[in-house]
Amino acid sequence: MKISAISWLAITTCILLTVTIFSTMNLSFSWVFYLTVLGQVLLVYTVYKVLKDNYTTDKTFDDFYEDYPIGKNE
C-alpha cells in the first residue's frame, strides 16, 4: 500500500503533537528525545514526499482562489 504525501503529513503532525504532550506531562526525557528525533526525520521525509509528489492540476494563478474565480463568468 502506497502512503500519500498528505498521510505522511498527518503522521508527522501526530508524532510532533505527541512530543509536545509528552514534554508537558514531564514524561521521561528519553521518550521525548527519541520522539523528537523521529519527528524531525519524518518531517524531512514528508517535505521530500510533498515536493516529489506527482500532483498535477489545470488551475493557474489566473484562477485566484478555486471557490472565487476572478474575472471568469462560468
Question: What does this protein look like?
Answer:
With 74 residues, this protein is an all-alpha fold. It has one domain. It contains two helices and no strands. Helix 1 packs antiparallel against helix 2 (29-52). The model has no long low-confidence stretch (mean pLDDT 85).
Name the descriptors.
59% helix, single chain, 74 residues, 2 helices, elongated, mainly alpha
Alpha carbon gyration radius: 19 Å
- Given as residue ranges, the uncertain stretches (5+ residues, pLDDT < 50) are none
Shape: elongated
Number of strands: 0
Largest sheet: none
Mean pLDDT: 85
Can you give the helix content as a percent range? 55-70%
Précis, in short:
By secondary structure, the chain is an all-alpha fold.
Strand-helix topology:
Blueprint lengths: L4 H20 L4 H24 L22
Helix pairs in contact: 1-2
